[in-house]
TrEMBL record:
SMART domains xrefs: AP2Ec
Tagged with keyword Coiled coil: no
InterPro entries: AP_endonuc_2, AP_endonuc_F2_Zn_BS, Xyl_isomerase-like_sf, Xyl_isomerase-like_TIM-brl
Protein name per UniProt: Probable endonuclease 4
Chemical reaction(s) catalysed: Endonucleolytic cleavage to 5'-phosphooligonucleotide end-products
Species, as recorded: Adlercreutzia equolifaciens subsp. celatus DSM 18785
Keyword Zinc-finger: no
Residues that bind Zn(2+) 2: 176, 211, 256
Amino acid sequence: MLTIGCHLSKRRGYLEMAKEAASINANTFQYFTRSPRGSEQAALDEKDVAAYLAFAKEHGIHDALAYAPYDADPATDKMNERDFALMVYSEDLARLAEVDGSLYLIRPGSRLDISVEEGLADVADALNKIITPSMKTCVLLDTMAGEGTQVGTSFEQLAAIIAKVDHPEHVGVCFDCAGVWAEGYDIVGDLDGVLEEFDRTIGLDKLKAVHLNDATHERGSHVDRHARIGEGKIGFDALAALVNHPKLAGVPFYLEEPDSTLVIYERDVARFQEAYKG
């Protein structure tokens, strides 16, 4: 069965997100744990979480993907920014421990004035400070487009981060289509080759989620801007090929659109479900 959902707002709680997902025939969803630019978040509503978990079980909703704010930057050597990122990650993971079946997505960030190797080591160090042997939430690294001094832009860089993590069994990768396209991977003309390279470098067992998004710019541009699905440089057919690829069977897919309305997402969910061959 295809696991597919979209990005929703958390402002009305977990139960409401699950109901919105079910209303568009989705069986998963993604959300920001707080404002994407970083802020405090409201206290966890235990009644809402309990109601959500019951609703999700009844409606087959699973693998909800919690997205850390963009301003949490683990690659930097600026201590105030690193402290902020570690505070955000620790708070988020403590709350997600109460929300069974969650995934947690972070962006590796930007190294600014330090070397690539130092930036990668900083990301791994941050992961080692937040990951515990007994935790149940899997932490995912987002594939980055290579804008500015971003790290985690290539499969080799992601592998280098994971290799330095003390408990790599709790770490995976979210394959962001627009990001890998912007980095230069040809998911349109050579999807098999790209996935084979991912498997050789990182291991497909680490590919835990896929962002289904289209791109406004050409491959290798290092510009991560989303087009409406089917109207960009990647195109619907290439994204549908990802959904149907046997090596990605069972992986959850999360739609991302520049105009994130339920009407658009309902259309997208239906299109991919219709294209899915099982």
